Amino acid sequence: MKRLVLIFALIASPLFAVQPDEVLDDPVLEQRARDLSTGLRCLVCRNESIDESNAELARDLRLLLRERLVAGDTDKQAIAFIVDRYGEYVLLKPTVAGSNLMLWLAGPIMLLIAAAVGWSFLRKRSQAQPAGGNDALSEAEKERLRQILEE
Amino acid sequence: MITELGHFALILAFLVAIVQSVVPLIGAAKRWPGWMSFAEPAAIIQFLLVGFSFWVLVWAFVTSDFSLRIVVENSHSAKPMLYKISGTWGNHEGSMLLWVLIVSLFGAMAAVFGGGLPPTLKARVLAVQSAIAVAFFAFILFTSNPFDRLIVAPFDGRDLNPLLQDPGLAFHPPFLYLGYVGLSMAFSFAVAALIEGRVDAAWGRWVRPWTLAAWIFLTIGIALGSWWAYYELGWGGFWFWDPVENASFMPWLLAAALLHSAIVVEKREALKSWTILLAIIAFGFSLIGTFIVRSGLLTSVHAFANDPERGVFILFILVIFIGGALTLFAARAQAMEAKGVFGMVSRESALVLNNVLLAVSCFVVFFGTMWPMVAEMAFDRKLSVGAPFFNAAFTPFMIALGIAMPVGAMLPWKRGKIGKAAFSLRYAFVLAVALALLVWVMQTERSALGPIGLFLGAWITFGAIVDLWSRTGRKGSFQRLFRLPGADWGKAVAHTGMGVTMFAIAGLTAWEVEDIRVAQPGQPFEVGQFTLTLEDVRNVEGPNYFSTTADVLVQQDGRTIGTLHPEKRDYPVARMPTTEAAIDYRFLRDLYVVIGDQQADGGWVMRTYIKPLANWIWGGCILMALGGLLSLSDRRFRVAAGARKAPAGGVPAE
Questions:
Q1: Which residues pair with residue B547 across a beta bridge?
Q2: Which residue in B has a C-alpha nearest to residue A7's C-alpha?
Q3: A89, A148, B159, B453: which has the fewest C-beta neighbours closer than 10 Å?
């Protein structure tokens, strides 16, 4: 329970995510930092990016990220720097490599399968004979109709 | 004393539910009318018993009966009355009682309003519904009993989580549960039809109102939750792709697919086995949602009191019900052959496309939600799947859906021509493109997101208008417009709502303005077209919290618009601080102000956002729910349902 309260306190704390003293003077660099930090996870929070989070660790990560950018890192290098230290768990957008390919391809593959199934169903329907004979009632249905009429 | 009565009523309801899930099934199999008709009074008695039991729990919260464990853990005598009541379902045990209350509410409603159902189908539906209730009664009574007493009652409680002490969130869970559990009705109908071995147009017509109702409740519930996140969490985010949000979103997507495919069953007697499967899976996702929230398996901001043992129990329920239903489906699906014949281009095929897109998009959300767990277990990779993934992987489906929607809605049944539908939509298309281009030229930054959103929203909205107008006949007439069936209006309004929400999400994301600074009291600063002045910061005492309240004067072009009062609150009992953003709601944009900590130089950290079209997100949701209601009000549902009871000649000639 105590941990839960702590976690909620971190989420709900009125401390802001990005503090005014963190903001870089160069607006272009700052914008890059903001864009990158929406894709990095705050490790002690529940499913929040460091851009949104109020936790101390998120602040440290934001500062670290800005340090790297000021030092002249490209976006890729800065991210790689953080991933090296904190693991791929920090990436909110999983890499498109290795077993993660399954994650990224699952949607498109499923769409192809669903489209193929839907297409074959539609073809079958459009080539089916008009259901003239099928409209006649089966024996059981006739029996039921008789029952209803008698009621 | 009254608490024990409530506990007793709950046990009694459990017993009634057990009998109700067995006797009518045997009756239906053997065609014994007495056994079958047992289901109706049983469903009503079961509902009355759970209703009483739930009322007792509410009463315990209202009177702050601190001899009950969950009242101590989730309430406080100084808490406002509304939150004492909503505290009843703001915790695990109470929310499960609410869940089972709604299961039996739907059962009782089917018993009361199901006059037109064939007796065997009705008996089976009520029995299956009751079997679901049995599982959850057992879950409540054996793992999470809300009527647990404490041996020594403390003087006061530990208060409800302050984040939950909010009008938006007081009603968020009940609506969501009405939606989740409403899908149990579609499930019961599907399983009953499988046992029965027949699905026909009438079945589609009976299932649709229940699905529609569930979908409306889910829409409202999700919208309330997202609105709450917007004004409460302090930075105006409205959707986080959090596992628990996804858990409510997946049933919503499937319910939307289901209510469209049920139309095909009703009108054309096709897509039967798919509709049955969809009904089973949709309820399956409701159970998965409950499992995700209650087990704490996936980390989420919503995971309140959770416990792996309870998760296992729900997983067990999930496996039995969904596994059982799918086995039954595999055995019986062959029996349901499609009857309707239709061309490759027709309303039917458009609805198939709708189902493909909605079902696959739901699959994407599901896969992304579960992937961190799968990756950890199978590949030993600890990774996260967050908002950036879902935005990239999910959005294309919604764009495709938005582009196809107006054309599909215009296509005639059986056989149609794309060209003809597209031709009647030419003005809608041109107007939508023109609007998007205009905005593209006007906006300062060159992001395509806003214009694309506007195009989709306008295309869907104008398309819905053209569609509605075309229903009034070749020439169109206003008189006929208002005599159109509720379903036509419902479709137009709900589709428009979808368009409005899409536009709003794109617009808000593209055109938001943010300002973070240390504001000195009395010194005005500018954000966008507004001038803000921090005038004063005061300490205020609330009923069960202390607040730091700021007065912020907002001016535009030298004219005073108003004073906003953002707050920081501290709830001493729950030892939790919260932010209360001050929002100036306007039609086209919200001004969103948050106050933070005081700095060493006497200034205060302030965050200001201009959030264009924020209201439109929830306005669109309201339109969608309203469209659902209009469709539900269609008299064709009632005529069909009560057809057998209507006396001959009692219906006025038209």
A1: B540, B569
A2: B301
A3: A148
Nearest-by-CA chain B residue for A89:
B383
Query: By the CB < 8 Å criterion, does B344 face chain A?
Result: yes
Give this prediction's pTM: 0.88
Angle between helices B39-62 and B119-143 (to 10 degrees): 30
The chain-wide mean pLDDT, for chain B, equals: 86
Per-residue pLDDT tens for B322-367?
999 999 998 887 777 777 778 888 888 999 999 999 999 999 999 9
Distance from A72 to chain B by nearest Cα, in Å?
25
| Pair B498, B397: CB distance under 8 Å | no
Q: Which residues contact A128 (CB under 8 A, 6 or more apart)?
A: B338, B341
Q: Which parts of chain B register pLDDT below 50?
A: 300-301, 303-305, 641-654
> Does A41 reach chain B within 8 Å, measured CB to CB?
yes
Q: Long-range CB contacts (< 8 A, 24+ apart) of B597-601?
A: B597/A14, B597/A15, B598/B537, B599/B518, B601/B518, B601/B520
ipTM of the assembly? 0.83
* A104 interfacial to chain B (CB closer than 8 Å): yes
Task: Give chain B's radius of gyration (CA, Å).
Answer: 27
pLDDT of A16 reads 54
A71 close contact with B: CB closer than 8 A: no
Nearest to A122 among B344, B384, B605 (CB): B344
Q: What is the pLDDT of residues B470-486, one digit of tens each?
A: 888 766 677 788 888 88
